[in-house]
Amino acid sequence: MKPIIRPLSTLLMGGTYLLSIFYPFSFAPSLVSLFALIALLSFFPYLNRVPKVLILVLTIGALSIELSREGLHQLFIGLQTNANVLAIFIFVPLLAIPIKQGNYLAYVEVIFSSYIKKTHQLYLFSTISAASIGAVMNVGSLPILYQLTDTKSFQPYTTLRLQSMSRGFVLAFLWSPYFISVGLVLAYFDITWLQLFVPGISLALLIMLTGYFLEGKKREEIPIDVPKPSQDVLKKAKWKVAELALIVALITAIIMIIESLTGLSVLTVIPLVAILMSFVWSLFFSTRQELVQNYRAFFDARIPGMGNELSLFIIAGAFGTALLDNGADEWILALLGSLNISHVLLLIPLILLLMVIPAIVGLHPVITATILAITLSNSPLFVGDHLYLSLGLLASWMAAILVSPFSGVNLLLAAISRKSPFEISLKNNAGFAVLLWGICYAGIVGLYLLK
């Protein structure tokens, strides 16, 4: 298929879903499913081997389940199950255009070179950068941050840099409204983003400080071989980084205000605001020609680069729906009954096992999370525990991403650093993943006891 089909079908899938929110029409689900099917088929030849195998297995599984009931139509409609979350995944990366065009990351580099003198400071700055910039730019921020710290002074500490970037990046899974993880739990569980944000950001900060404290115990002096930037350059860098933080905070505030005033789901508001603010923000830095070039690059390169995650999420929604249609909620209740699990605080450790073990052997956490979210959100057993389930699912998702050699984060970091993904995941982050999840679980228990 021609390369244009991949980005075009992706945009039509997300765009049709958003249009149907304001102008409902009866065949909207079928149309979104059609574009999702075209995207799935057009991306498939270009996917990595592991996603290809997973998609084939899930497709065969969903077909065998659905053919026993209502045939292909149910599977076809199930392809649009995650359209609301996919709209965030597709359109939020537009915000990366003004961030790059405004040279904000160059000013982040100035801050790095000015204030990092010891290894624990390098860890903290890298973690904060990955957690904050990554919360908006997603995984695309990691190669940039790696290059920013790939100076002669910091190159001897590559392992530390990789650890801080992966650990900082996954913290956004807990709270960022621009992340597919948060979008997923908001789509299925009866909670709002504001309910999730306070405990999510609190746990993320606590985990970040714990990592900083642990690195502080083995701090080393970093010999700096480059001259310090002038005071004028440093002052401008501080202003530009503060400007970036304020603009992102403003965009988030706009999303919350629109959600409150209109009653629209935050899952609808986020992609719409991302589209609008990306364009308005870019006008301050770009000529008309540069703007056209940036959006063309988004269409030609950024969207085709989404293939692995996008395809998995499409088929995961269809497979999860097929399971639910055929009594998966009853299966899970039966499993919980056989294990004598009737309390949410006992269920959350089981979620960890169900997320991490498959992830280590190659099953993408998106698939497991989707199936768990669809089934648990419909369970009457935990109807009043959706906040704790959401936090438990997100904490387990973070741990799975850190320890899986096949996660997109670890594969990307392995590619840019020329290290083994097994070294980056299991060797360097397994212990921290356990610590991270333990902190989250303790926070969930505390939140539960205070209710």
TrEMBL record:
Transmembrane segments: 21-44, 50-68, 75-97, 122-148, 169-189, 195-214, 241-258, 264-285, 306-324, 344-375, 387-409, 429-450
Record's keyword terms, sorted: Membrane, Transmembrane, Transmembrane helix
Organism in which the protein naturally occurs: Planomicrobium soli
This protein's name: Di/tricarboxylate transporter
